[in-house]
Structure prediction request, 96 residues.
Amino acid sequence: MSIIIKPVVSEKMTKIGEKHNRVAFRVRRDANKIEIKKAVEALYNVTVESVNTIQVKGKHKSRYTKAGMIEGTTPFYKKAIITLAEGSNIDFYSNI
Prediction:
């Protein structure tokens, strides 16, 4: 099973990526920084300078239906912010 689930592509991460040469990925919750670094280097053929991880907590959601109010939470997940070495680049938009 792969450690990297999917890249995080948002306006905020695009600005951070352009300014600081960073990319973000949603990763498995049991993955550590060393495994994440090896997986990114193998998958994208880049040099990783550092890895920062964040445990993102799920949001509480509720909605009204005919049967009454339904409450729940979105799932927790782990996010890794990868700082790439100078000259390395990952382009997520090249296949579009």
